[in-house]
Amino acid sequence: MLTDTERKILIVIRNIFRIKGRFPSAIELQYRTGRSMEKILNALESLQQKGYIRWDADKKSIEMADPISQNIL
To answer: Which residues pair with 55 in a beta bridge?
Structure first.
């Protein structure tokens, strides 16, 4: 089950990808969700562990684990 923050992050990731053709940064996620950076980073780690996204904190890159089936919400 997803937390409220995880669900909001997935929605933002999906929407930015569909509209702009790229994945958002953690800073964009913070701005668009209104959550603290700590909550964003914790949620990204959790989403990665659950298999929803691929996230490389060193490269600061986020992407959907399966971009073809983005109807996960």
So the answer is: 62
The one-letter amino acid at 63: E
* Helix extents (H) in the chain: 4-20, 26-33, 37-49
DSSP structure class, residue 23: P
- Helix (H) / strand (E) element for 61: namely strand 61-64
pTM over 0.85: no
Res 65 pLDDT > 50: yes
Has domain 4-64 been given CATH number 1.10.760.10?
A: no
Structure tokens at 19: 């509209």
pLDDT bin (cut points 50, 70, 90) of residue 69 is very low
| C-alpha R_g of the chain | 11
